[in-house]
UniProtKB/TrEMBL annotation:
InterPro entries: Thioredoxin-like_sf, Thioredoxin_domain, TMX_domain-containing. It holds the Pfam family Thioredoxin. GO terms for cellular component: endoplasmic reticulum membrane. The keyword Endoplasmic reticulum applies. Keywords: Disulfide bond, Electron transport, Endoplasmic reticulum, Isomerase, Membrane, Redox-active center, Signal, Transmembrane, Transmembrane helix, Transport. This is Thioredoxin-related transmembrane protein 1. It is a single-pass membrane protein. It comes from Monoraphidium neglectum.
Length: 196
């Protein structure tokens, strides 16, 4: 499945750890973080689909995140309960804590957020800081995918993969030493010149 989905009218976009940053970089997003087993989440689902129909033509994409499968996003948002609802707009985030009625949710997504306090910069998942933290939290999954690709698709042994990983810092260290050697030890030493 491609990470580059579009938010079509009437369609709730499924955001995941691997497509969140690319999709939410622009525009306004109303996001429900849910768990499939949560009865409150299940009751919210028809309202959420109705919001997708109503809000997309008004410039707000409606999305959901399965919190049981997307642990990086769960950490980035700081989710403590299901469902958790957020509005993402212009690099800022607002957590919605109001009534779960269609009208209340719609009003918050369009104008109500203006009177609410946005999340602090360091806690917003769409701030520059939040995106950097997301990349750091995603590194283990990326490393695992790279290992799986090298092991299963390319047929490399564990020993070959580990040796290759150890050679990278060794090569970089050697290159750094050579650069420092050229910069500092190959220049003529002015202190040893004699003046007559």
């Amino acid at each position: 499945m491609s990470g580059e989905l579009t938010a079509e009218a009437g369609k709730v976009v499924e955001l995941r750890d691997d497509n969140f940053d690319s999709l939410t970089r622009s525009g306004a997003w109303f996001v429900d973080i849910y768990a499939p087993w949560c009865s409150h989440c299940q009751r919210l689902e028809p309202t959420w689909r109705q919001l997708a129909d109503e809000l997309k033509p008004l410039g707000v994409s409606v999305a959901k995140v399965d919190g049981t499968k997307n642990k990086v996003l769960l950490m980035r948002f700081g989710v403590e309960a299901y469902p958790s609802i957020y509005l993402l707009r212009e690099g800022k985030s607002w957590q919605y804590d109001g009534a779960r009625s269609f009208q209340s949710l719609k009003e918050f997504a369009l104008t109500g957020f203006k009177s609410a306090q946005p999340m602090p910069f360091h806690k917003s998942p769409v701030s520059a800081f939040g995106r950097v933290m997301g990349a750091l939290h995603s590194f283990p999954a990326l490393a695992k995918r790279a290992y799986t690709h090298l092991r299963e698709d390319k047929g490399f042994s564990d020993m070959t993969i580990i040796s290759g990983l150890l050679l990278v810092p060794l090569a970089l260290g050697g290159l750094g030493i050579c650069i420092l050697d050229v910069m500092y030890t190959r220049q003529p030493h002015l202190a040893h010149q004699h003046y007559e």
